[in-house]
Amino acid sequence: MTVRIAHIRSILLVCLVGIFAACGTAQYRSEATGGSRPGSPAAYSKMKSERYAGKRALDSLADEMRSPKEEEADESPKPAKPVERMVVYFAKYSLQVESVRKSMADVQAIVGAAGGFIESAVTSDSYRAARIVIRVPVAEFEKTLAALERVGEVSAKEVSAADVTMEYRDISLRMEMARTVRDRLYQLLKAAKKADDRVKILREIERLTTQIDSMNARMAYLKNRATLSTIELRLAAKVREVTRSYLPSPFPWIAGLDPNKRTIFDSGGSVSYDAMSGFFHMKDEYYDRSGAYLFMTPDRSTGMRIGTVDNYPPANQEFWREALRLELSNRMYTIRKEDAIVAGAARFMSYEIALAKGVYVLSVAVTDENIVIVETVFPDDASYKKYAGQIVKFIQTIRVK
Asked: To bridge 158 with a disulfide, which of 3, 92, 260, 276 should be the other Cys (CB 3.0-4.6 Å)?
């Protein structure tokens, strides 16, 4: 308070010095025209008495502006209040989990039990990873961390605490001082008569108001962080490393199957079939080995081919079914559907396989002497849905000789 009074006194003193300077000039002119000589003891004594009078007037004005509360505070300062510590707790954890989706539900339950909430949650790569920001009361901070560690395998963690007590008190004091100065400026604004003075005071009030708002926002932020601790949690699905070597089938026709090219060549004399509606019949090109497909759609997007090999070593359909499934498994193909198609006396085993691009349908029938293989390649699911029914109907017309 004493500092503010001294400041006010200095402002008033500047004003009084200006007034006295003007008076001195007038006094000099008076002496030059017949008064006391400038610099004479009489003139100096007169000026000195006027300055003392001005100082007494300044002291009297400052005393009047000082409130009784300020006088009380100056005479007997109050003891400082006990300091309440404000500590901001923060933790950053990385967990390896079996299922990110399930672990997020577990985290939600833990946070709810602690009386906290999830501030934000972002998943990526189809729930292969997630970033969660958690806010829990400070009293539940350690307990929550212990519970989160049980959700998965901790791969990294970082825990920190920052004491913001002094920063909070410093901002609080500066904001109180700024408000006090602003209140005094409002008083001066009421007393100001000149337009220039009012503009200057208003600008200063605006500047202080901006500072006060900024300090108030910072205090609210610190209080929030000290009341609710923050935990940043990163979840990542465990990557299972599978080391396996591909062992091709010992049967050449199975090992050679490839959706991208023709691998079985024969004269076509072992089978007969009906024409397929809506497809181009590429019989001549196919059997002279210059074409990859026996039937193709007009846009050449979907193709189907037929081939036969000897049933050697002689085996029944169940044997060849297991041999095919083993090969498809070794190739890590995804079999979306397995079905049976009856064609006269023959029975085809049909496998719907999802490729990186498109769908591959492999249908195989076994007789005593031959194995009949039908391969159909679709560029996408839309083509599969459009033509799959026609392919099944065609296979039902195949007759093995």
From this structure: 92
Which secondary structure element, helix H or strand E, spans residue 129, and what is its range? strand 129-137
Stated as kind and residue range, the H or E segment containing 15 is helix 2-32
CA 351/CA 339 separation, integer angstroms: 7
**Strand bridging mode 87-97 / 228-237:** parallel
State residue 244's pLDDT score: 55
Find tokens 């080995």 and name the residue: 289
**Number of neighbouring beta carbons within 10 Å of residue 331:** 12
Q: Quick: pLDDT tens for 8-62.
A: 444 434 333 333 333 333 333 333 334 444 343 443 344 344 434 434 433 443 3
pLDDT of residue 256: 94
Contact (CB, 8 A) for 330 and 246:
yes
C-alpha 257/C-alpha 351 separation (Å) is 13
Give 252-400's CATH code, choosing from 3.40.50.300, 3.40.1000.10, 3.40.50.620, 1.20.58.220: 3.40.1000.10
Query: What pLDDT score does 9 carry?
Result: 43
Decide if 158 contacts 230 (C-beta within 8 A).
Answer: no
Question: How many other C-beta atoms can be found within 10 angstroms of the C-beta atom of residue 258?
Answer: 10
Provide the pLDDT for residue 30: 34
Distance (Å, whole) CA 7 – CA 371: 107
List, as one string, the DSSP characters of 308-363: EEE--S---HHHHHHHHHHHHHHTT-EEEEEEEEEETTEEEEEEEEE-SSSEEEEE
Please tell me whether the overall predicted TM-score, pTM, comes out greater than 0.85 for this model: no
Query: Do residues 208 and 69 lie in contact, with contact meaning Cβ atoms separated by under 8 Å?
Result: no
Q: Per residue in 248-294, pLDDT tens?
A: 899 999 999 999 999 999 988 889 999 888 899 999 899 888 899 99
Q: How far apart are alpha carbons 384 and 358 in whole angstroms?
A: 8
Q: Where are the domains of the chain?
A: 2-75, 86-241, 252-400
Check residues 312 and 247 and name the one with the higher pLDDT. 312
Query: Residue type at 210?
Result: T
Coil, helix or strand for 366? Answer: strand
The DSSP-derived string for 181-235 is HHHHHHHHHHH--SHHHHHHHHHHHHHHHHHHHHHHHHHHHHHHHHHEEEEEEEE
